[in-house]
Amino acid sequence: MAHIVILGAGYAGLGTARKLAKIAPSDTKIDLIDRNVQHVESIKLYQVAAGTAQPDEISFDIQSVLPANVNFIQATVTKVDYENKKVEFSDHEDLTYDYVVLGLGFRSENFGMSGADNYSYKLQDIPTAQKIYQVINSNIRNYKQSQDPNDLNIAVCGAGFTGIELLGELIETVKILKAKYSVPKINITCLEMAPQILPMFDSKLAQYALDFLTKNGIKIMTGAKIQKIEPNAVVYTQGESDTEQRVYANSIIWTVGVSGSDVIKDSGFDAKRNRIVVTDYLNIADHPEIYVVGDDSASMDPKSGRPLPTTGQLALAQANVAAQNIVADIKQQAQKKFVYKSKGTVASLGPNSGIAEIQMTNPHVKLKGKMAALAKKFSFEQVLFEVGGLKGIKNN
């Protein structure tokens, strides 16, 4: 009897567990472990941060969607002792395994930026998302008493996917808060080091997103290299200049980037930004019984030679293949190589707009505005079905 331990019940971990439940030999023991009892749709965290969704709208009970042959354990992982095939926890007895799947998710990465941890708010889970909205709401409410113009200023650091989707959602949020508290104009500024936003999209779609955000009052500053975060300001330099400038705001949100779980580092794995380079079969070369999926995994793109960007879509694709390869190994059969084919990319610009590039057709279908918003909704429902089946959709 093989014992499979899956660490993390995000997209990758939950997807692996559900697939294994269908295809693993009947005597296989499958344990799924997470420190939380709720699965969080992390691709929707920006809505909680903007106050347009409640936590229970983007989460569901993990055990409610698990097949009967998957055992769920609520516990906090501290280390994987890969030499002894053992997982250590802070609040549970150690577990030994025959196979282990690392899918522990991500954490916000500050890249050693001075002041980022102390003076900005990271978006990485439900508590931090709730805190962001609380800070924005509190500062705007406080303006009438403080008369501090920075209470009406919001700075978003980073114009990646998370930053852009948060900006789109904040468009409606600030309209509501402005009317609610009868305050002057609320200013939103986004600082991005790259020369353009959303480079993964067709240039015309990226320009549409930029124009949409600008038209709705958001200032996008590209080529802005953040130097440090102060209590009420983002310090940056522009272009080749070394002259420090500031964007003043009492609500500073950090969406610059993410890394894998610190458990990867604490376990002594060879990794960069807590992401482990995996083989074509999604395991570790020196320890083939260890599979790594989702945000902890660095699957290399054969075309670019760089790791594939971590997305929910990629995590679910990895989960499917990792599960198949574990079962193949149990049965002493040939494993399959992981070959990733993106279905497309969708970015929300608020509830009624967005941009999308669907890659399942030739030529690719490019959408913008309301049609892209509908594509985003469809893709979200598809992800819900893959991680939770019909129960996952019903729970949301």
From TrEMBL:
Pfam families in the cross-refs: Pyr_redox_2
Quick check: keyword Flavoprotein in the entry?
Answer: yes
Which residues belong to any copy of the FAD/NAD(P)-binding domain? Answer: 3-306
- Keywords in alphabetical order: FAD, Flavoprotein, Oxidoreductase
One GO BP annotation is: aerobic electron transport chain
UniProt keyword Oxidoreductase, yes or no: yes
Q: Supply one GO molecular-function term.
A: NAD(P)H dehydrogenase (quinone) activity
The cofactors it requires, by name, are: FAD
Q: State the similarity comment.
A: Belongs to the NADH dehydrogenase family.
What this protein is called in its record is Pyridine nucleotide-disulfide oxidoreductase
What species does this protein belong to?
A: Bombilactobacillus mellifer
